Amino acid sequence: MLSMTFSVRPVGRSKDASSMSQLVGYLGKNQSDTSLATTGVPSRAVESMKFRRSILGLAILMLVCGHQCLDACLAAGSELQATPVNTHTIGLVLSNFDWAMSPIKDEKAECPEGPIHNNRENWEAQFPSRSARQEQLNKCWRIDNRGPNCENGFFNPEAVSDPLPFREVQSPVAYGVDLDGTLDGQATATTCEHKKFRNVKSDEKVDNQLFRFFGCHRNLVNNLFSEGNTRKYVQAGIINRLLVEISGVTDEQNSPDVEVTLYRGSDQLLVDSIRKVVPWQSQRAIGKSLYHAKGRITNGQLVTYPADAVWPQTYIGMQRIRNMTLHLSLSPSGAEGIRAGYVEVDQLWEWYSHFGIITSAGEVYMASPSSAYAALRRLADGYKDPQAGQCTALSSAFKVEFVRAFVIHPSEEAGR
Amino acid sequence: MKAGTSLWTVTAITVLAATATIGYLGIERSERDRAPAVSGGPASVRLISADQYATAVHDVFGEDTKVEVDFAPPQRLQGLLALGQSAAAITPGALDQFDRVALAVAQQVTDDRHRGIFVPCIPVSVVDADAACAKQFFIRTGRFLYRRPLTNAEIETQVEAAGKGARRLSDFYAGLTYSLAGMLTSPKFLYFIETAEPDPDNSGQLRLTNFSKATRLSLFLWNAAPDETLLDAAEKGNLDNADGLKRQIDRMLESPRIEKGVRAFFSDLLRFDQFATLAKDSTIYPGFTIQVTRSAEEQMLHLITDQLLARNSDYRDLFTRRLTFINATLGPLYRSPVLDAESWTPHEVSPGQSAGLLTSPGFLALYSHPGKSSPTRRGRAVRENLLCQHVPDPPPNVSFAIFDDPNRNFKTARDRLDAHRTNPACAGCHKIMDPIGLALENYDGSGAYRTTEGGAPIDVSGELDGKSFVDVAGFGQAVRNNPALVSCLVNRLYSYGVGRPASAGDRPWLDYETKRFGSEGYRLVALLRDIASSEAFYAVSVDFDKHRGTQDARVDRKEE
Predict the structure, then answer these.
(1) Model ipTM?
(2) A302 and A260 Cβ atoms separated by less than 8 Å
(3) Is B524 left (phi over 0), alpha (psi -120 to 50) or beta?
């Protein structure tokens, strides 16, 4: 029989610094010492070095002060020791997620030429007469089998030439983060040339080529990607149960050195009577971490340093995100902000093509596959293949919301 | 060891055992002798409750029998629905419900899956009547349903009804179904009917029959009809002697079913029937969902059974203990982690913030308004439910003009109630309710902890019957030490058991029992045993009205 034990990472509650921290602490404690001591990953070398430093310091003090001074020194030391530096861990559970596809809520401005051309429109343009269309259907059976040898556009996009252009976002505003470090989106050793957006909430230049690609998929944006739809999936679905732990927090407004870890959750979210996720619920983490990065909190804003992640997400599944960074505004009951990073063209195309052909959604939601595939490759701005010079991933930004939660780590009991 | 030594040892042990037994029986006897005599009330007739109905069906026909009972509760008398059951009639509408449920149950009992289990014989023909087989079925089943053996005439009636049905429908089991449904709608099943007989030891007096004693005992301890062992004991007349009765009481107190009995009593005492209609304003308390309501009710019952059964601890400490239990649904309300999503986790409330049961979200939410707390409701609940003190209903022309005046800008409930008490017509009652309710103001209408209201700090200090307190823990202590807390429990438990309000004639015995409860450490199990073994519990009298005295039954009215 499987028996389980649990360890709980307390949320919003201070815990005393470890005994190791106290041991090294009463002479020359500094911030990095504390961080090491209380995040639970102390380096033995550092620990040993500090202990030796403490003893040495004490000896020097004895020589300088003499016995009379020793009592005072020890008293001062005790006082320092009695003031533990507290760190705690903030637990969060994902409560909402938004593809952030309509930042200015103005369809005309975002897509002045109109929405994307779907497969049928391209088929009609490719075979303008009724007889030509009938001939194509007689020969190739389906309208998406439009290649010269009836190749299917979803399976073999490069074999099909769409007569109509792919429509992408034209407006200059988007949610996002500056991922490439440039002001104008010029190519670098690892990125490809692209247009930058202006951040919705500031004048910062940001990258979000995923929005540029998807923004004119208006049916997708207004339905499957809509906030209401996504909220429903986050609250009721299994795949979107995501937990975040921010450890090493000394002060929720300013903590220079924190660690952020992402886990999958196993428990259904508790929601209240107006369908909002209830804060302070207990959520069990399962499996290994999906993301682990260092970060800092400044004026209540958490920013993590880029690290690769796997982010389970409705429609896409276990999505790989390269150089993911979280920019979250922390509040007493949760956090909200942006999850940014690069999403791989291959993975996006895999989802896009499967979704289009398996669910017959191509006609309703998707652009014609061949032009969509070409656009994905053209718009890719990150992770340049050094050999081909072609970028393999698109910059992206999603809005995320969390509520505070108790993250519980079930662990298998030894010797079961 | 030599044979002589061995003989001496055996003799000594035998003598010691005999002395101990005689001593024990002597103590028991002397306890019974010292107890004031009670003339008793009339033999009661109590309508079965929805819970008791479902339990009876499950006990007789198995847990997988679906019973969808939702009978209207009776009027509450002297603070208990159980007493209302003694005065409840069956309306035509209720009979329709009983009839529908009875037929549904009977059909399940005789369907293809179950007939092999519950019908103890195979009929000669399944398309015709079989009186012999039907008789076997009704003798066995009827004993459980009527809580006594059926008379020959009753058996005859059921067999005849089954035969008629079988012949008309050409189906033996269909006949059985309709006859069984008839039994399930019979007053003999729907009412717990006590009968008395002349007491051979006291000429001119009556005593309950053994089967009536069994039913009273079983309803008291298990909130269920007697099981087979108890019916067997009753049939042998074992409940008329102290030893036989003691054996059954001990057995029943040790059974896991005692928990169901204790839950039923406290659900009735604390008016948990109101949870079924408890609703909060979702714009003010969005977190108070139906799941929270259910968990809050279960949490209180869990707390009660843990304190009084699992730990067999002092009843009074139920109002001071800090240890409670939370589940995944209640965890957010306490801002505390719950390790196991499927079960209850012990949780210790911070010092100074707990008055035990009274600071459970269930109690706090139940006795609040939909959108705010209510010191008045909470105060009245403590006075009436726990201290057995009557609080008059508000006068019909009461004015809430000052209370509700938006221009007065009251920040806290204390401010509002202080202003309200300027009306002399209201002041009298509010004076006895409000200090209690205000002590619980650190908890809002959903049971969540708070320290301020309207931006102003909440003052929970006050006094209860002369005992001052500064925080809610102090209030819990004042409730714990209030003498009325204990006497109220004894009174309510006794009334609940005998199925009638306690009368003035019962007062000396109740006082005696209250003291005895104290000497036993205020342990509920001891109290249950004392009451169940007492002569007072089984006493019946035809002259009850003469002894009724001042405690006439009062139909509780709805609270403001």
Answers:
(1) 0.76
(2) yes
(3) alpha
Q: What are the φ and ψ backbone dihedral angles of A96, each rounded to 5 degrees?
A: -160, 155
CB atoms within 10 A of CB B325: 19
Domain boundaries, chain B: 89-191, 280-295+317-476
Cross-chain Cβ contact B328/A279 below 8 Å: no
Nearest to A280 among B332, B340, B341 (CB): B332
Q: Which residue is listed with tokens 């069984």?
A: B180
CA pair distance B4, B12, nearest whole angstrom? 12
**Residue B179 near residue B133, CB atoms below 8 Å:** no
Structure confidence by residue, pLDDT tens digits, B360-369: 999 999 999 9
DSSP B359: G
CB B440 within 8 A of CB B460: yes
Q: pLDDT tens for residues B387-444?
A: 999 887 777 776 666 666 766 677 788 877 777 676 676 777 777 788 899 999 999 9
Of residues B283, B288, B332, nearest to A270 (C-beta): B332
| Residues 6+ away with beta carbon under 8 Å from A209 | A194, A379, A380, A381, A394, A395, A396
- Yes or no: say if A217 and A371 are a contact pair by the CB < 8 Å rule: no
Q: Does B336 touch chain A (CB under 8 A)?
A: yes
Q: Which helix (H) or strand (E) holds B28?
A: helix B3-34
- Residue B248 is which amino acid? Q
**Is B339 close to A272, i.e. CB distance below 8 A?**
no
d(CA B505, CA B38): 7
Bridge-based pairing of strands B452-453 and B345-348 is unpaired
